[in-house]
From TrEMBL, chain A:
Compartments it resides in: Mitochondrion matrix
Protein role: The electron transfer flavoprotein serves as a specific electron acceptor for several dehydrogenases, including five acyl-CoA dehydrogenases, glutaryl-CoA and sarcosine dehydrogenase. It transfers the electrons to the main mitochondrial respiratory chain via ETF-ubiquinone oxidoreductase (ETF dehydrogenase).
Any GO BP: fatty acid beta-oxidation using acyl-CoA dehydrogenase
Cofactor(s) needed by this chain: FAD
Recorded family membership: Belongs to the ETF beta-subunit/FixA family.
One annotated Gene Ontology cellular component of this protein: mitochondrion
Name of the featured protein: Electron transfer flavoprotein subunit beta
Subunit structure: Heterodimer of an alpha and a beta subunit.
Gene field: LOC123129123
Ranges where the Electron transfer flavoprotein alpha/beta-subunit N-terminal domain occurs: 23-217
SMART domains per the UniProt record, alphabetical: ETF (SM00893)
UniProtKB/TrEMBL annotation, chain B:
Family named by the database record: Belongs to the ETF alpha-subunit/FixB family.
Organism annotation: Triticum aestivum (Wheat)
Descriptive protein name: Electron transfer flavoprotein subunit alpha
One term of GO molecular function: electron transfer activity
Cofactor details (free text): Binds 1 FAD per dimer.
Lineage: Eukaryota, Viridiplantae, Streptophyta, Embryophyta, Tracheophyta
Main localization (coarse): mitochondrion
GO biological process: fatty acid beta-oxidation using acyl-CoA dehydrogenase
Length: 255, 356
């Protein structure tokens, strides 16, 4: 079985982003970019499944500008076997939407015929939490979203997925092929070692365009503007618990 | 240059063809809400979706869709029928297939109901159920949904947070109907006004003949492990007390639970506290956990990472107790105490009277 993992290049999670003065978006020109943390977890899970014998090959894919190849190299350095780069230069006013990404990934899935697709549950830039669900719908495959544990039964062609849901943990069983999206709790991604980073340089990254895949990336969403969130007014440091109790009683009125 | 383009787009949207389009739209607004229910009642998060429907249009014809089986479904349908003046119809999908929140049959249901009803808008709440289902249904209908809407300024213009709430993005949906969205329930106050008995909306059974054997069998539900708790639901609580890594152990979280008891509060946690095994995952507040906006949020031993602030920055009052005076949490806190959280906790427990 082959596993296809989708990864996205985003502003590093530790960066405090700034809204551009012209309010057309967030400043991404000179900030550190990294692989989306949920995608790292997806790559790690695919590698662990391969190491456990449940999969024979791990293919990483991304949709993005030329620089997104770095993110694929990271996936290859972690241990992915090869990669596919769907080149797309984003337009800030008409961003590439999850539906378009899902259509691109469907086209790749039909070419690669993986037994399992793993994605992160959301990208930390657009915070959409949509692509995996949409991809599953387009392929008419079952979905296991927000996964915190994945068990593959190769003989029965089934995946048992524990999901993080409001109020607890839900367990579901999916027929393969299926789409799984990762929650933070699924695993601890490995670091790429220097020898593996060197090895990754000789691994193959195939380049294609959405047009090659016959996918229309038209966007149904127009970004009118991007604003800073309202600033909270400066708070006060209290010197005693009694003062806090007084504030809770007389200002917040919860006592 | 880019600014001029956006400004131009804005002007066109207001004065030109966009304005006429909005006017036509306003006449044709009808909304389908996917409502969740529990114990015979519509959940508060779904009542928030009604407030969002009202924000789309004052005269919005709203249909509420409920699924499941058994007497609680029908009790919830009655509740739904009298939950808001805008409710025009309650649609009930009565089948064991919908007893559990599996995305595959639910998305088929939503597609079928939309194709029959031709709604201009479809709303779900950003709960784990809504987030799992809505994008799947949207892809079946070949439309792009909007995630986590926090404000509605026109029927197709929405505000949503991006980058963990560090930027607010205003988008116009320009695609085909329906315009689908998940709403952040803490941004829309649940409709509380109950209607008089005479204005109860009709309840209709959904025709389920669309359900094919194949699609409903690709996934199956095994079980749900839930934390039974007497305390209020984290997402809807008036007061939330949260612990971070500073709490140091699961044992110490008991102190926080005692304080929560006294305040009638829900208990939350940071990712660090969850990862350290002090509390279960579903208590995590933040970009990847729950989004809360209580009256008062009291954070003990929480440093205030970007990802945590994303989940609580809209709280009315934020109180921070931390020994590190430079912790970023103090930049958003209304009231801060720099000191040992255990001393503060003990003193609060001593001085706050028991809830009557």
């Amino acid at each position: 079985m082959k596993i296809l993992v989708a990864v996205k290049r985003v502003v590093d999670y530790a960066v405090k982003v700034r809204v551009r003065p012209d309010r057309t978006g967030v400043d991404t020109a000179s900030v550190k970019m990294s692989m989306n943390p949920f995608c790292e977890i997806a790559v790690e899970e695919a590698l662990r499944l391969r190491e456990a014998g449940a999969a024979s090959e791990v293919v990483a894919a991304t949709v993005g500008p030329a620089q997104a190849a770095d993110t694929l190299r990271t996936a290859l350095a972690m241990g992915a076997d090869r990669a596919v780069h769907v080149l797309h230069d984003p337009d800030p006013a008409r961003p590439l939407l999850p539906l378009a990404v899902a259509k691109i990934l469907r086209a790749l899935a039909l070419q690669e015929t993986p037994g399992l697709l793993i994605l992160g549950k959301q990208a930390i830039d657009d915070d959409c939490n949509q692509t995996g669900q949409m991809l599953a719908a387009l392929l008419n495959w079952p979905q296991g979203t927000f996964a915190s544990k994945v068990i593959i039964d190769k003989d029965k062609q089934k995946a048992t997925v524990e999901r993080e849901v409001d109020g607890g943990t839900e367990t579901i069983c999916l027929d393969l092929p299926a789409v799984i999206t990762t929650d933070l709790r699924l695993n601890q991604p490995r670091y790429a070692t220097l020898p593996n980073i060197m090895k990754a340089k000789s691994k193959v990254i195939k380049k294609v365009t959405p047009a090659d895949l016959n996918v229309d990336v038209r966007s149904d969403m127009e970004v009118l503007r991007v604003d800073e969130p309202p600033k909270r007014k400066a708070g006060v440091i209290l010197s005693s618990v009694d003062e806090l109790l007084d504030k809770l009683k007389n200002e917040a009125r919860v006592l | 240059m880019a600014a001029a383009v956006v400004a131009g787009a804005l002007r066109r949207g207001r004065a030109g063809a966009g304005g006429a389009a909005e006017r036509t739209l306003r006449r044709l607004v009808s909304t389908l809400i996917i409502a969740e229910h529990e114990g015979g009642l519509v959940k508060p998060s779904s009542l928030s979706a009604l407030a969002a429907a009202e924000a789309i249009a004052k005269e919005n014809k709203v249909s509420l869709l409920l699924g499941g089986s058994g007497p609680t479904l029908h009790k919830a349908a009655e509740h739904a029928a009298s939950s808001h003046p805008l409710v025009n119809e309650v649609l009930v999908a009565d089948s064991d297939i919908f007893a559990h929140p599996l995305a595959e049959p639910w998305a088929e249901l939503l597609r079928s109901v939309q194709q029959k009803g031709g709604y201009s808008h479809v709303i779900a709440s950003s709960t784990s159920f809504g987030k799992n289902l809505l994008p799947r249904a949207a892809a079946l209908l070949d439309v792009s949904p909007v995630t986590d809407v926090t404000a509605i300024s026109e029927p197709r213009v929405f505000v949503r947070p991006i980058y963990a709430g560090n930027a607010l993005c205003t988008v116009r949906y320009t695609g085909e109907s329906p315009c689908m969205m998940s709403i952040r329930s803490t941004s829309f106050s649940p409709a509380t006004e109950s209607m008089s008995e005479t204005k109860v909306a009709p309840i209709t059974q959904v025709d389920l003949s669309f359900l094919s054997e194949a699609s409903s069998r690709k996934s199956s539900w095994v079980n749900l492990t839930s934390q039974d708790t007497e305390r209020p639901d984290l997402a809807n609580a008036r007061v939330v007390v949260t612990g971070g890594r500073g709490l140091k152990s699961a044992e110490n979280f008991k102190l926080l639970e005692q304080l929560a008891e006294k305040l009638g509060a829900a208990v939350g946690a940071t990712r660090a506290a969850v990862d350290a095994g002090y509390v279960p995952n579903e208590l995590q507040v933040g970009q990847t956990g729950k989004i809360v906006a209580p009256e008062v949020y009291i954070a003990f031993g929480v440093s205030g990472a970007i990802q945590h602030l994303a989940g609580m920055r809209d709280s009315k009052y934020i109180v921070a107790v931390n020994k590190d005076a430079d912790a970023p949490i103090f930049q958003v806190a209304d009231y801060g105490i720099v000191g040992d959280l255990f001393q503060v906790l003990e003193e609060l427990l001593e001085k706050i009277p028991d809830k009557k």
